[in-house]
Amino acid sequence: MTGRPAPAVLPPSLRARLGLVAALAALVVVALAVLYAGHSRPGRVDRWIIPPTADSVRPPWRYVALAVDFLGEPAGSAMVVVAAVTACLLLRRPRAAVLMVAGTGLAVGTATLLKHLVGRTIHGPDNLSYPSGHTAFLTALAFVAALLATDRLGLGRTAGTSLVLAATLLAGAAMGWAQVALGAHYPTDVLGGCCTALAVIPATAWLVDRIADRVADRLADAGPPPRR
Predict the structure, then answer these.
(1) Distance between CA atoms of 117 and 150, rounded to whole angstroms?
(2) What does pTM read for this prediction?
(3) pLDDT value for 58
(4) Fewer CB in 10 Å around end: N or C, the chain?
């Protein structure tokens, strides 16, 4: 008996599949980083999709893009994370609350580190672009939310994996569209940002579960406090 206070944030039935997804996503991130390191212009894939410009979309779609972009800005992301953490706590899922903060933070932090290592720029030497931190953030947030939904709905391996992938890809596509439409990133930047989150969140979720399990086991071994 371990006395665990909460279910795993990364369901055991999904670990193998999401671990494979994370490994493949990491390979994509590395491959794109090597391919576009030090570049300052769109690649062939980027030009095939759309040449990024500051006026790729006109109103009213530009307003939609700006609203989505705000979710990845410091103020917007803070508001979203606070709301998500509050929801996790109300649902009595403390591990998911921890993952919301740690997972999104690590995803954005990893993207920021990669930007300085890769050195790809857009619209000037001061604008590092690969990978997109905005896309990494929203993808990571959707990933954690989908894991929570999988747990709450009691979904199996196939349905749970499908939900997680659908949610993350939808979020990544939405933020990616906004970033490209506003001329802030190349299409391959947003792909790198999405894959960064896909690589980071499963590993972070596994770590959160492992630490929480160890803490719960130690508390169970210590037993209840003595009565006075």
Answers:
(1) 35
(2) 0.91
(3) 85
(4) C
Structure tokens at 195: 């894959």
Residue 128: φ, ψ to 5°: -70, 140
DSSP state of 56: S
pLDDT digits (tens, 9 = 90+) for 82-141: 999 999 999 999 999 999 999 999 999 999 999 999 999 998 999 999 999 999 999 999
Q: Which helix (H) or strand (E) holds 158?
A: helix 157-181
Helix (H) or strand (E) holding 156: none
Name the 3-class secondary structure at 121: strand
- pLDDT tens digits for range 21-75: 999 999 999 999 999 999 999 998 898 887 655 567 888 999 999 999 999 999 9
| 115 contacts: CB under 8 Å, gap ≥ 6 | 128, 129, 130, 131, 133
Total residue count of the chain as it appears in this document: 228
How far is Cα 101 from Cα 94, in angstroms, rounded to an integer? 11
